[in-house]
Protein backbone atom coordinates (compact mmCIF):
# COMPACT_ATOMS: atom_id res chain seq x y z
CA UNK A 1 0.00 0.00 0.00
CA UNK A 2 2.82 2.40 0.92
CA UNK A 3 4.57 1.66 -2.37
CA UNK A 4 1.35 2.36 -4.27
CA UNK A 5 0.89 5.67 -2.45
CA UNK A 6 4.51 6.59 -3.19
CA UNK A 7 4.17 5.69 -6.86
CA UNK A 8 0.93 7.69 -7.20
CA UNK A 9 2.42 10.71 -5.46
CA UNK A 10 5.63 10.66 -7.48
CA UNK A 11 3.65 10.20 -10.67
CA UNK A 12 1.40 13.17 -9.77
CA UNK A 13 4.35 15.38 -8.95
CA UNK A 14 6.12 14.37 -12.16
CA UNK A 15 3.05 15.22 -14.26
CA UNK A 16 2.71 18.54 -12.39
CA UNK A 17 6.34 19.43 -13.09
CA UNK A 18 6.06 18.58 -16.81
CA UNK A 19 2.75 20.43 -17.16
CA UNK A 20 4.12 23.51 -15.39
CA UNK A 21 7.21 23.50 -17.59
CA UNK A 22 5.04 23.33 -20.71
CA UNK A 23 2.81 26.12 -19.41
CA UNK A 24 5.81 28.32 -18.67
CA UNK A 25 7.18 27.65 -22.14
CA UNK A 26 3.85 28.55 -23.74
CA UNK A 27 3.53 31.79 -21.77
CA UNK A 28 7.18 32.76 -21.91
CA UNK A 29 7.66 36.41 -22.82
CA UNK A 30 10.46 36.80 -25.37
CA UNK A 31 13.54 38.86 -24.58
CA UNK A 32 15.84 40.86 -26.78
CA UNK A 33 18.41 38.13 -26.10
CA UNK A 34 16.25 35.93 -28.36
CA UNK A 35 16.69 38.40 -31.22
CA UNK A 36 17.23 39.68 -33.72
CA UNK A 37 13.72 38.61 -34.63
CA UNK A 38 12.36 37.81 -38.04
CA UNK A 39 10.28 40.83 -39.16
CA UNK A 40 6.55 40.51 -38.53
CA UNK A 41 3.69 42.67 -39.84
CA UNK A 42 0.20 42.54 -38.39
CA UNK A 43 -2.14 44.09 -40.93
CA UNK A 44 -4.67 46.79 -40.13
CA UNK A 45 -7.92 45.26 -38.94
CA UNK A 46 -10.52 46.30 -41.56
CA UNK A 47 -13.30 45.96 -38.98
CA UNK A 48 -11.87 49.04 -37.23
CA UNK A 49 -12.10 52.63 -38.37
CA UNK A 50 -8.83 54.32 -39.34
CA UNK A 51 -9.76 57.38 -37.32
CA UNK A 52 -12.51 59.47 -35.76
CA UNK A 53 -13.53 63.11 -35.47
CA UNK A 54 -12.34 65.34 -32.67
CA UNK A 55 -14.46 65.69 -29.56
CA UNK A 56 -16.40 68.99 -29.58
CA UNK A 57 -15.49 71.72 -27.12
CA UNK A 58 -18.80 71.24 -25.27
CA UNK A 59 -17.95 67.61 -24.57
CA UNK A 60 -18.03 66.91 -20.79
CA UNK A 61 -14.33 66.07 -20.78
CA UNK A 62 -13.35 69.31 -22.57
CA UNK A 63 -15.70 72.02 -21.33
CA UNK A 64 -14.73 74.37 -18.52
CA UNK A 65 -16.21 73.59 -15.11
CA UNK A 66 -14.04 75.83 -12.92
CA UNK A 67 -15.52 79.22 -12.07
CA UNK A 68 -13.90 82.63 -11.63
CA UNK A 69 -10.25 82.26 -10.60
CA UNK A 70 -10.39 78.67 -9.40
CA UNK A 71 -7.65 76.41 -10.82
CA UNK A 72 -8.22 74.08 -13.76
CA UNK A 73 -6.01 72.08 -16.14
CA UNK A 74 -3.84 70.98 -13.20
CA UNK A 75 -0.71 69.04 -14.15
CA UNK A 76 2.50 67.69 -12.64
CA UNK A 77 6.04 67.36 -13.98
CA UNK A 78 9.23 66.03 -12.42
CA UNK A 79 11.72 68.72 -11.42
CA UNK A 80 14.24 66.55 -9.56
CA UNK A 81 14.14 63.39 -7.42
CA UNK A 82 13.02 65.57 -4.48
CA UNK A 83 10.94 68.25 -6.21
CA UNK A 84 7.89 68.52 -8.45
CA UNK A 85 6.38 71.14 -10.75
CA UNK A 86 2.69 71.89 -10.26
CA UNK A 87 1.01 73.83 -13.09
CA UNK A 88 -2.54 75.09 -13.64
CA UNK A 89 -4.65 77.76 -15.36
CA UNK A 90 -7.00 80.38 -13.92
CA UNK A 91 -9.23 83.04 -15.44
CA UNK A 92 -10.89 83.27 -18.83
CA UNK A 93 -9.09 82.89 -22.13
CA UNK A 94 -10.22 85.28 -24.84
CA UNK A 95 -10.60 84.81 -28.57
CA UNK A 96 -11.59 87.43 -31.14
CA UNK A 97 -10.24 90.34 -33.17
CA UNK A 98 -9.41 92.45 -30.09
CA UNK A 99 -8.13 90.57 -27.07
CA UNK A 100 -6.68 92.08 -23.91
CA UNK A 101 -4.26 89.87 -21.95
CA UNK A 102 -5.06 89.24 -18.30
CA UNK A 103 -2.71 90.54 -15.62
CA UNK A 104 -0.69 87.54 -14.35
CA UNK A 105 -0.09 89.32 -11.05
CA UNK A 106 -3.83 89.51 -10.34
CA UNK A 107 -3.93 85.92 -9.08
CA UNK A 108 -1.28 84.39 -6.81
CA UNK A 109 0.42 81.04 -7.40
CA UNK A 110 0.38 78.86 -4.28
CA UNK A 111 0.62 75.15 -3.56
CA UNK A 112 -0.19 73.68 -0.15
CA UNK A 113 1.07 70.14 0.41
CA UNK A 114 1.67 67.51 3.05
CA UNK A 115 1.78 63.78 3.75
CA UNK A 116 -1.69 63.60 5.28
CA UNK A 117 -5.00 64.40 3.67
CA UNK A 118 -6.20 67.82 4.76
CA UNK A 119 -2.95 68.62 6.59
CA UNK A 120 -0.79 70.86 4.42
CA UNK A 121 2.29 71.64 6.48
CA UNK A 122 4.31 73.00 3.54
CA UNK A 123 3.73 75.92 1.19
CA UNK A 124 5.19 76.72 -2.22
CA UNK A 125 4.96 79.87 -4.31
CA UNK A 126 5.78 80.32 -7.97
CA UNK A 127 5.24 82.47 -11.01
CA UNK A 128 2.51 83.08 -13.55
CA UNK A 129 2.26 84.26 -17.13
CA UNK A 130 -0.04 84.59 -20.14
CA UNK A 131 0.59 84.23 -23.86
CA UNK A 132 -1.05 85.43 -27.04
CA UNK A 133 -1.43 83.85 -30.46
CA UNK A 134 -1.88 86.65 -33.00
CA UNK A 135 -3.06 86.43 -36.62
CA UNK A 136 -3.19 89.87 -38.29
CA UNK A 137 -5.28 88.70 -41.23
CA UNK A 138 -8.81 89.67 -42.12
CA UNK A 139 -11.34 87.25 -40.71
CA UNK A 140 -8.89 85.46 -38.41
CA UNK A 141 -9.26 85.51 -34.63
CA UNK A 142 -6.57 86.25 -32.05
CA UNK A 143 -6.23 84.47 -28.74
CA UNK A 144 -4.93 85.29 -25.28
CA UNK A 145 -4.68 82.62 -22.63
CA UNK A 146 -5.87 82.42 -19.08
CA UNK A 147 -3.24 82.91 -16.39
CA UNK A 148 -0.80 79.98 -16.43
CA UNK A 149 0.80 79.17 -13.08
CA UNK A 150 3.95 77.16 -12.34
CA UNK A 151 5.09 76.33 -8.78
CA UNK A 152 8.07 74.17 -7.90
CA UNK A 153 7.61 72.35 -4.59
CA UNK A 154 10.72 70.84 -3.04
CA UNK A 155 11.98 68.98 0.00
CA UNK A 156 9.95 65.95 -1.02
CA UNK A 157 10.79 62.48 0.25
CA UNK A 158 11.18 59.70 -2.33
CA UNK A 159 8.50 57.05 -2.69
CA UNK A 160 6.09 59.09 -0.59
CA UNK A 161 2.45 60.03 -1.11
CA UNK A 162 1.65 63.76 -0.95
CA UNK A 163 -1.68 65.55 -0.82
CA UNK A 164 -1.91 69.04 -2.30
CA UNK A 165 -4.08 71.98 -3.27
CA UNK A 166 -3.19 74.81 -5.61
CA UNK A 167 -4.56 78.29 -6.26
CA UNK A 168 -4.78 81.65 -4.49
CA UNK A 169 -5.74 81.47 -0.81
CA UNK A 170 -6.30 85.24 -0.56
CA UNK A 171 -9.33 85.24 -2.88
CA UNK A 172 -9.90 82.47 -1.70
CA UNK A 173 -9.75 80.18 -4.74
CA UNK A 174 -7.99 76.92 -3.95
CA UNK A 175 -8.49 73.69 -5.87
CA UNK A 176 -9.86 70.48 -4.50
CA UNK A 177 -7.33 68.12 -2.93
CA UNK A 178 -5.18 66.07 -5.29
CA UNK A 179 -2.61 63.40 -4.53
CA UNK A 180 0.62 62.14 -6.08
CA UNK A 181 3.45 59.81 -5.13
CA UNK A 182 7.08 60.76 -5.59
CA UNK A 183 9.43 58.49 -7.49
CA UNK A 184 12.40 56.68 -5.92
CA UNK A 185 15.85 58.23 -5.76
CA UNK A 186 18.40 57.24 -8.42
CA UNK A 187 19.42 53.69 -7.60
CA UNK A 188 20.06 50.46 -9.50
CA UNK A 189 17.52 48.78 -7.22
CA UNK A 190 14.57 51.23 -7.37
CA UNK A 191 12.34 52.08 -10.33
CA UNK A 192 8.98 53.66 -11.09
CA UNK A 193 6.09 51.23 -10.90
CA UNK A 194 4.96 51.77 -14.50
CA UNK A 195 5.79 54.37 -17.13
CA UNK A 196 3.22 55.14 -19.82
CA UNK A 197 4.52 56.22 -23.22
CA UNK A 198 2.06 58.08 -25.46
CA UNK A 199 2.53 59.84 -28.78
CA UNK A 200 0.38 61.92 -31.15
CA UNK A 201 -2.61 61.86 -28.83
CA UNK A 202 -5.02 64.55 -29.98
CA UNK A 203 -8.62 64.82 -28.79
CA UNK A 204 -10.70 62.25 -30.65
CA UNK A 205 -12.85 59.42 -29.33
CA UNK A 206 -9.80 57.19 -30.01
CA UNK A 207 -7.77 59.54 -27.78
CA UNK A 208 -10.39 59.03 -25.06
CA UNK A 209 -10.01 55.25 -25.29
CA UNK A 210 -6.22 55.60 -25.08
CA UNK A 211 -6.34 57.73 -21.94
CA UNK A 212 -9.00 55.53 -20.32
CA UNK A 213 -6.72 52.55 -20.99
CA UNK A 214 -3.70 54.39 -19.54
CA UNK A 215 -5.62 55.27 -16.39
CA UNK A 216 -6.53 51.60 -15.92
CA UNK A 217 -2.82 50.74 -16.18
CA UNK A 218 -2.09 53.17 -13.32
CA UNK A 219 1.28 54.65 -14.39
CA UNK A 220 3.75 56.34 -12.04
CA UNK A 221 4.60 58.84 -14.79
CA UNK A 222 3.80 59.61 -18.42
CA UNK A 223 6.20 60.21 -21.30
CA UNK A 224 4.42 62.30 -23.97
CA UNK A 225 6.54 62.14 -27.12
CA UNK A 226 5.08 65.11 -28.99
CA UNK A 227 1.97 66.20 -30.91
CA UNK A 228 -0.36 66.86 -28.01
CA UNK A 229 -3.54 68.72 -29.00
CA UNK A 230 -3.68 69.01 -32.82
CA UNK A 231 -5.06 72.52 -32.36
CA UNK A 232 -3.41 73.36 -35.68
CA UNK A 233 -5.89 71.19 -37.58
CA UNK A 234 -8.37 74.04 -37.21
CA UNK A 235 -9.01 77.56 -38.42
CA UNK A 236 -8.84 80.27 -35.77
CA UNK A 237 -12.64 80.44 -35.80
CA UNK A 238 -12.91 76.90 -34.53
CA UNK A 239 -15.66 75.12 -36.42
CA UNK A 240 -14.58 71.59 -37.40
CA UNK A 241 -11.05 70.25 -37.51
CA UNK A 242 -9.72 68.37 -40.54
CA UNK A 243 -7.58 65.22 -40.88
CA UNK A 244 -5.71 66.97 -43.71
CA UNK A 245 -5.25 70.69 -43.08
CA UNK A 246 -3.92 71.66 -46.51
CA UNK A 247 -6.69 69.67 -48.20
CA UNK A 248 -9.49 71.30 -46.18
CA UNK A 249 -8.05 74.82 -45.96
CA UNK A 250 -5.94 75.44 -49.10
CA UNK A 251 -6.46 79.22 -48.97
CA UNK A 252 -5.42 79.76 -45.35
CA UNK A 253 -2.88 82.63 -45.19
CA UNK A 254 -0.90 80.85 -42.46
CA UNK A 255 -1.09 77.53 -40.60
CA UNK A 256 -3.88 78.61 -38.28
CA UNK A 257 -4.75 77.14 -34.89
CA UNK A 258 -7.75 77.13 -32.64
CA UNK A 259 -6.10 77.72 -29.28
CA UNK A 260 -9.11 76.80 -27.11
CA UNK A 261 -8.29 73.20 -28.07
CA UNK A 262 -5.24 73.54 -25.81
CA UNK A 263 -7.56 74.44 -22.92
CA UNK A 264 -9.83 71.51 -23.77
CA UNK A 265 -6.82 69.18 -23.85
CA UNK A 266 -5.67 70.40 -20.44
CA UNK A 267 -9.08 69.59 -18.97
CA UNK A 268 -9.19 66.26 -20.79
CA UNK A 269 -5.82 65.25 -19.33
CA UNK A 270 -6.23 66.62 -15.79
CA UNK A 271 -7.65 63.44 -14.19
CA UNK A 272 -4.44 61.66 -15.20
CA UNK A 273 -1.68 64.28 -15.04
CA UNK A 274 -2.80 65.92 -11.78
CA UNK A 275 -1.71 62.71 -10.03
CA UNK A 276 1.01 61.33 -12.34
CA UNK A 277 3.76 63.63 -13.68
CA UNK A 278 3.78 64.12 -17.45
CA UNK A 279 7.09 64.75 -19.21
CA UNK A 280 6.56 66.32 -22.63
CA UNK A 281 8.69 66.95 -25.69
CA UNK A 282 7.66 69.02 -28.69
CA UNK A 283 6.35 67.67 -31.98
CA UNK A 284 5.65 69.34 -35.31
CA UNK A 285 2.03 70.10 -34.34
CA UNK A 286 3.35 72.32 -31.53
CA UNK A 287 5.20 74.65 -33.96
CA UNK A 288 2.15 76.92 -34.47
CA UNK A 289 3.86 79.81 -36.35
CA UNK A 290 2.84 83.42 -35.91
CA UNK A 291 3.50 86.20 -38.42
CA UNK A 292 6.11 87.75 -36.12
CA UNK A 293 8.20 84.57 -36.39
CA UNK A 294 7.23 83.32 -32.95
CA UNK A 295 6.74 79.55 -32.76
CA UNK A 296 5.89 76.96 -30.09
CA UNK A 297 4.30 79.60 -27.83
CA UNK A 298 1.62 77.30 -26.41
CA UNK A 299 4.03 74.43 -25.78
CA UNK A 300 6.67 76.63 -24.16
CA UNK A 301 4.21 78.42 -21.88
CA UNK A 302 1.77 75.79 -20.68
CA UNK A 303 3.89 72.91 -19.39
CA UNK A 304 6.90 72.95 -17.08
CA UNK A 305 9.97 70.79 -17.71
CA UNK A 306 13.27 70.50 -15.81
CA UNK A 307 15.32 72.48 -18.32
CA UNK A 308 17.24 74.61 -15.82
CA UNK A 309 17.59 71.67 -13.45
CA UNK A 310 19.28 69.61 -16.19
CA UNK A 311 21.46 72.46 -17.44
CA UNK A 312 19.87 72.79 -20.87
CA UNK A 313 17.98 76.02 -20.15
CA UNK A 314 15.70 75.10 -23.05
CA UNK A 315 12.25 73.52 -22.94
CA UNK A 316 13.06 71.91 -26.30
CA UNK A 317 15.50 69.43 -24.74
CA UNK A 318 16.30 68.35 -21.18
CA UNK A 319 16.95 65.32 -18.98
CA UNK A 320 15.81 63.91 -15.66
CA UNK A 321 16.12 60.84 -13.44
CA UNK A 322 13.31 58.51 -12.40
CA UNK A 323 14.74 55.97 -9.98
CA UNK A 324 17.41 53.96 -11.80
CA UNK A 325 16.54 55.45 -15.22
CA UNK A 326 18.10 58.51 -16.80
CA UNK A 327 15.81 60.04 -19.43
CA UNK A 328 17.08 62.29 -22.22
CA UNK A 329 14.41 64.28 -24.09
CA UNK A 330 15.67 65.69 -27.39
CA UNK A 331 14.32 68.37 -29.71
CA UNK A 332 13.96 67.59 -33.41
CA UNK A 333 12.62 71.03 -34.30
CA UNK A 334 15.56 73.06 -33.02
CA UNK A 335 19.21 72.88 -34.03
CA UNK A 336 20.47 69.32 -33.61
CA UNK A 337 23.73 69.68 -35.56
CA UNK A 338 26.94 68.48 -33.91
CA UNK A 339 28.15 72.10 -33.77
CA UNK A 340 25.06 73.37 -31.96
CA UNK A 341 24.02 74.02 -28.37
CA UNK A 342 21.75 70.97 -28.06
CA UNK A 343 24.47 68.54 -29.17
CA UNK A 344 26.98 70.14 -26.82
CA UNK A 345 24.54 69.88 -23.92
CA UNK A 346 23.67 66.27 -24.82
CA UNK A 347 27.32 65.23 -24.85
CA UNK A 348 27.90 66.80 -21.46
CA UNK A 349 24.72 65.29 -20.02
CA UNK A 350 25.58 61.79 -21.22
CA UNK A 351 29.12 62.16 -19.90
CA UNK A 352 27.75 62.87 -16.42
CA UNK A 353 25.47 59.83 -16.28
CA UNK A 354 26.54 57.40 -13.57
CA UNK A 355 25.41 53.97 -14.77
CA UNK A 356 26.09 52.58 -11.28
CA UNK A 357 23.18 54.76 -10.05
CA UNK A 358 21.04 54.93 -13.18
CA UNK A 359 21.83 51.78 -15.19
CA UNK A 360 19.07 52.47 -17.70
CA UNK A 361 19.49 55.21 -20.29
CA UNK A 362 16.33 56.05 -22.24
CA UNK A 363 15.98 58.72 -24.91
CA UNK A 364 12.88 60.21 -26.55
CA UNK A 365 12.10 62.64 -29.33
CA UNK A 366 9.20 63.08 -31.72
CA UNK A 367 10.12 61.88 -35.27
CA UNK A 368 11.59 58.36 -35.53
CA UNK A 369 14.95 57.64 -37.14
CA UNK A 370 14.04 54.04 -37.92
CA UNK A 371 10.68 53.74 -39.66
CA UNK A 372 9.41 51.36 -42.36
CA UNK A 373 6.09 53.11 -42.95
CA UNK A 374 5.66 55.33 -46.02
CA UNK A 375 4.60 58.21 -43.81
CA UNK A 376 7.63 60.26 -42.68
CA UNK A 377 10.02 57.73 -44.21
CA UNK A 378 13.62 58.97 -43.74
CA UNK A 379 12.22 62.39 -42.87
CA UNK A 380 14.72 63.06 -40.10
CA UNK A 381 17.69 61.27 -41.60
CA UNK A 382 19.77 64.43 -41.06
CA UNK A 383 19.17 64.26 -37.30
CA UNK A 384 20.12 60.59 -37.26
CA UNK A 385 23.38 61.28 -39.08
CA UNK A 386 24.25 64.04 -36.61
CA UNK A 387 23.35 62.36 -33.33
CA UNK A 388 23.17 58.58 -33.65
CA UNK A 389 26.86 57.89 -33.11
CA UNK A 390 26.84 59.84 -29.84
CA UNK A 391 23.87 57.93 -28.46
CA UNK A 392 25.45 54.64 -29.53
CA UNK A 393 28.75 55.60 -27.94
CA UNK A 394 27.05 56.12 -24.59
CA UNK A 395 24.97 52.94 -24.96
CA UNK A 396 21.43 54.31 -24.90
CA UNK A 397 19.15 51.35 -24.16
CA UNK A 398 15.74 52.37 -25.55
CA UNK A 399 14.51 55.19 -27.79
CA UNK A 400 10.84 56.25 -27.95
CA UNK A 401 9.36 58.34 -30.76
CA UNK A 402 5.99 59.18 -32.28
CA UNK A 403 5.12 61.12 -35.48
CA UNK A 404 4.19 58.00 -37.48
CA UNK A 405 0.61 57.11 -36.54
CA UNK A 406 1.20 53.41 -36.01
CA UNK A 407 3.26 51.06 -33.87
CA UNK A 408 6.68 49.66 -34.70
CA UNK A 409 9.39 48.01 -32.60
CA UNK A 410 12.89 47.54 -34.01
CA UNK A 411 15.54 44.96 -33.42
CA UNK A 412 18.66 46.41 -31.85
CA UNK A 413 20.21 48.50 -34.60
CA UNK A 414 22.93 51.03 -35.32
CA UNK A 415 23.48 52.79 -38.64
CA UNK A 416 20.87 50.55 -40.31
CA UNK A 417 22.85 47.46 -39.25
CA UNK A 418 21.74 44.89 -36.71
CA UNK A 419 23.88 45.43 -33.63
CA UNK A 420 23.49 43.78 -30.18
CA UNK A 421 24.69 47.00 -28.55
CA UNK A 422 22.36 49.33 -30.46
CA UNK A 423 19.23 50.77 -28.83
CA UNK A 424 15.78 49.27 -29.16
CA UNK A 425 13.87 51.91 -31.14
CA UNK A 426 10.10 51.99 -30.59
CA UNK A 427 7.53 54.14 -32.40
CA UNK A 428 4.29 54.85 -30.51
CA UNK A 429 2.71 57.64 -32.56
CA UNK A 430 -0.63 55.88 -32.32
CA UNK A 431 -2.33 57.83 -29.52
CA UNK A 432 -5.51 58.39 -31.54
CA UNK A 433 -5.33 61.81 -33.22
CA UNK A 434 -7.57 63.21 -35.97
CA UNK A 435 -5.06 62.46 -38.79
CA UNK A 436 -5.93 58.75 -38.71
CA UNK A 437 -3.74 55.67 -38.42
CA UNK A 438 -0.96 55.01 -40.97
CA UNK A 439 -1.29 51.74 -42.89
CA UNK A 440 1.11 51.93 -45.87
CA UNK A 441 4.60 50.42 -45.68
CA UNK A 442 7.47 51.82 -47.76
CA UNK A 443 8.63 48.31 -48.70
CA UNK A 444 5.36 47.37 -50.40
CA UNK A 445 4.81 47.83 -54.14
CA UNK A 446 3.84 51.37 -55.04
CA UNK A 447 4.36 52.73 -51.50
CA UNK A 448 8.01 53.79 -51.64
CA UNK A 449 8.04 57.61 -51.26
CA UNK A 450 9.74 59.75 -53.87
CA UNK A 451 12.75 61.90 -53.07
CA UNK A 452 10.49 64.96 -52.86
CA UNK A 453 8.21 63.44 -50.24
CA UNK A 454 8.56 63.63 -46.48
CA UNK A 455 10.30 67.00 -46.26
CA UNK A 456 10.84 67.87 -42.58
CA UNK A 457 9.31 71.01 -41.10
CA UNK A 458 12.72 71.79 -39.62
CA UNK A 459 16.24 70.96 -40.73
CA UNK A 460 17.65 69.70 -43.98
CA UNK A 461 16.90 66.79 -46.30
CA UNK A 462 19.34 63.87 -46.16
CA UNK A 463 17.48 61.06 -47.93
CA UNK A 464 19.88 58.23 -48.79
CA UNK A 465 20.02 54.99 -50.70
CA UNK A 466 21.25 52.09 -48.60
CA UNK A 467 24.94 51.35 -49.14
CA UNK A 468 24.94 47.72 -48.01
CA UNK A 469 22.73 44.80 -47.07
CA UNK A 470 19.65 43.42 -48.82
CA UNK A 471 18.52 46.93 -49.89
CA UNK A 472 21.92 48.01 -51.25
CA UNK A 473 21.57 50.80 -53.81
CA UNK A 474 17.86 51.29 -53.09
CA UNK A 475 15.90 54.02 -51.31
CA UNK A 476 13.34 51.51 -49.98
CA UNK A 477 13.55 47.84 -49.09
CA UNK A 478 11.46 45.41 -51.15
CA UNK A 479 10.44 43.58 -47.98
CA UNK A 480 10.08 44.50 -44.32
CA UNK A 481 13.57 45.65 -43.24
CA UNK A 482 15.54 43.27 -41.05
CA UNK A 483 15.80 45.95 -38.36
CA UNK A 484 11.99 46.15 -38.12
CA UNK A 485 10.96 43.40 -35.70
CA UNK A 486 7.23 44.06 -35.43
CA UNK A 487 4.75 46.60 -36.82
CA UNK A 488 1.00 47.07 -36.61
CA UNK A 489 -1.42 49.83 -37.58
CA UNK A 490 -3.58 50.28 -34.48
CA UNK A 491 -4.18 53.00 -31.90
CA UNK A 492 -2.77 52.42 -28.43
CA UNK A 493 -0.05 53.24 -25.90
CA UNK A 494 2.93 51.56 -24.25
CA UNK A 495 3.90 50.66 -20.70
CA UNK A 496 7.52 50.28 -19.56
CA UNK A 497 8.12 48.36 -16.33
CA UNK A 498 11.77 48.21 -15.31
CA UNK A 499 12.36 45.08 -13.24
CA UNK A 500 16.01 45.50 -12.29
CA UNK A 501 19.27 46.87 -13.67
CA UNK A 502 19.21 44.59 -16.72
CA UNK A 503 15.58 43.61 -17.40
CA UNK A 504 12.64 45.85 -18.41
CA UNK A 505 9.23 44.66 -19.58
CA UNK A 506 7.80 46.57 -22.55
CA UNK A 507 4.10 46.13 -23.36
CA UNK A 508 2.20 47.78 -26.19
CA UNK A 509 -1.54 47.97 -25.46
CA UNK A 510 -3.92 48.30 -28.38
CA UNK A 511 -7.09 50.32 -27.83
CA UNK A 512 -9.29 47.46 -29.00
CA UNK A 513 -7.92 45.33 -26.15
CA UNK A 514 -9.07 47.65 -23.36
CA UNK A 515 -11.90 45.35 -22.30
CA UNK A 516 -9.83 42.17 -22.51
CA UNK A 517 -8.00 40.94 -19.42
CA UNK A 518 -4.23 40.58 -19.75
CA UNK A 519 -4.33 41.32 -23.47
CA UNK A 520 -1.76 43.24 -25.46
CA UNK A 521 -0.49 43.81 -28.97
CA UNK A 522 3.22 43.33 -28.31
CA UNK A 523 5.32 42.37 -25.30
CA UNK A 524 9.02 41.79 -24.78
CA UNK A 525 11.70 42.01 -22.12
CA UNK A 526 14.38 44.49 -23.12
CA UNK A 527 17.62 43.11 -21.68
CA UNK A 528 20.71 45.20 -21.12
CA UNK A 529 24.10 43.53 -21.54
CA UNK A 530 26.59 45.88 -19.89
CA UNK A 531 29.27 43.19 -19.83
CA UNK A 532 29.05 42.98 -23.63
CA UNK A 533 28.44 46.65 -24.45
CA UNK A 534 30.61 48.57 -22.03
CA UNK A 535 33.84 49.37 -23.90
CA UNK A 536 32.50 52.22 -26.01
CA UNK A 537 30.95 53.84 -22.95
CA UNK A 538 34.30 53.89 -21.20
CA UNK A 539 36.04 55.28 -24.25
CA UNK A 540 33.49 58.08 -24.47
CA UNK A 541 33.63 59.05 -20.83
CA UNK A 542 30.78 58.67 -18.41
CA UNK A 543 30.72 56.47 -15.35
CA UNK A 544 30.33 52.72 -15.90
CA UNK A 545 28.21 50.57 -13.67
CA UNK A 546 29.69 48.12 -11.21
CA UNK A 547 29.55 45.19 -13.61
CA UNK A 548 29.07 42.85 -10.68
CA UNK A 549 26.44 40.15 -10.50
CA UNK A 550 25.57 37.36 -12.91
CA UNK A 551 25.64 37.59 -16.65
CA UNK A 552 22.31 36.96 -18.37
CA UNK A 553 23.53 33.55 -19.57
CA UNK A 554 24.57 32.61 -16.04
CA UNK A 555 21.27 33.88 -14.64
CA UNK A 556 19.34 31.76 -17.15
CA UNK A 557 21.44 28.68 -16.26
CA UNK A 558 20.91 29.34 -12.56
CA UNK A 559 17.15 29.61 -13.07
CA UNK A 560 17.06 26.30 -14.93
CA UNK A 561 19.17 24.57 -12.24
CA UNK A 562 17.01 26.05 -9.46
CA UNK A 563 13.89 24.64 -11.12
CA UNK A 564 15.52 21.22 -11.49
CA UNK A 565 16.78 21.24 -7.90
CA UNK A 566 13.34 22.23 -6.61
CA UNK A 567 11.75 19.37 -8.53
CA UNK A 568 14.21 16.85 -7.07
CA UNK A 569 13.61 18.28 -3.61
CA UNK A 570 9.85 17.82 -4.00
CA UNK A 571 10.35 14.18 -4.97
CA UNK A 572 12.72 13.60 -2.05
CA UNK A 573 10.23 15.08 0.40
CA UNK A 574 7.55 12.84 -1.06
CA UNK A 575 9.68 9.73 -0.53
CA UNK A 576 10.43 10.68 3.08
CA UNK A 577 6.81 11.55 3.75
CA UNK A 578 5.48 8.23 2.45
CA UNK A 579 8.03 6.25 4.45
CA UNK A 580 6.18 7.25 7.63
CA UNK A 581 2.84 5.89 6.40
From TrEMBL:
Catalysed reaction, written as an equation: a phosphate monoester + H2O = an alcohol + phosphate
Keyword annotations: Glycoprotein, Hydrolase, Signal, Zinc
Residues of the signal peptide: 1-20
Family: Belongs to the metallophosphoesterase superfamily. Purple acid phosphatase family.
Domain of life: Eukaryota
Originating species: Populus alba
InterPro entries associated with the record: Calcineurin-like_PHP, Metallo-depent_PP-like, MPP_PAP, PAPs-like, PAPs_C, PAPs_N, Purple_acid_Pase-like_N
Keyword Glycoprotein: yes
Keyword set includes Repressor: no
Co-factor(s): Fe cation; Zn(2+)
EC number: 3.1.3.2
GO molecular function, one term: metal ion binding
Residue stretches making up the Calcineurin-like phosphoesterase domain: 194-407
Any Pfam family matching the protein: Metallophos_C
Protein name as annotated: Purple acid phosphatase
Domain Purple acid phosphatase C-terminal: 472-513
PANTHER family referenced in this protein's UniProt entry, alphabetically: ACID PHOSPHATASE RELATED, PURPLE ACID PHOSPHATASE
Purple acid phosphatase N-terminal domain ranges (all copies): 71-182
Amino acid sequence: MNRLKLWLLINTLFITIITTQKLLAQNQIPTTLDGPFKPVTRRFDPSLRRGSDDLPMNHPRLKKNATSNFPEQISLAISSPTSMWVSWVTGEAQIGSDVIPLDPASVASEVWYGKESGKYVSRGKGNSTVYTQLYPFEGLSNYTSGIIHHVRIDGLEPGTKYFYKCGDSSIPAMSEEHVFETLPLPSPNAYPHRIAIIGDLGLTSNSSTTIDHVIVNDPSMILMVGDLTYANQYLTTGEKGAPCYSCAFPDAPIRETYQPRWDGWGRFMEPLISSSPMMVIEGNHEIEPQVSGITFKSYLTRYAVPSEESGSNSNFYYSFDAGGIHFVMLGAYVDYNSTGAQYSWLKQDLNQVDRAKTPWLVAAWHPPWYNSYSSHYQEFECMRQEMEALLYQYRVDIVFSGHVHAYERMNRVYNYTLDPCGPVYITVGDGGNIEKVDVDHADEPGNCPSAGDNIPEFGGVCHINFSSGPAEGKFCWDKQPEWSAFRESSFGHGILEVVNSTYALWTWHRNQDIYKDDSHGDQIYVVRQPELCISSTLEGGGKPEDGGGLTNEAADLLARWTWFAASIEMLTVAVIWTSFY
